[in-house]
Write a structure and sequence with these properties.
mainly beta, Immunoglobulin-like, five-stranded antiparallel sheet, four-stranded mixed sheet, 43% strand, signal, Transthyretin-like_sf, secreted, Transthyretin-like, Transthyretin-like family protein
Amino acid sequence: MTCHQFLSIFIIFISKSYLSEAIGRTQSTGVTGKLICDDGPAANVLIKLYEHDKLTPDELMDSTTTDSDGNFKLSGSADEISSIEPKINIYHDCNDGIKPCQRRVTIFIPMSYVQNVKTPSKFYDLGTMQLSAVYPDESRDCLH
């Protein structure tokens, strides 16, 4: 191999390494749980899984609604240079009366449930969550 060929291969290798770092690595997470309102299941509640970003809009990774028993399961992936910060937003009307828009509760998923694969094999179990409670940093959302 000539010096010129070696240099060409070396430059291609380095370029691919930097390009892959600039695009980021694929990371994923998943979450399951059950939502209740007072004494019954919170059916048909919208839940969205996001990759939280500080400088740009959050990236939607998945969304679903709870089943008739209040159960849900979400998973998704994102390509980021740094570690993703996954969170779920829960949009509901539990004990909300006739107030406009919906209550929004945000829960961040622990970093130990972020994996460097496209499809997660480990899911964060939120457990059973009572929506009638008032949560810190709860807000209202009309445009979700």
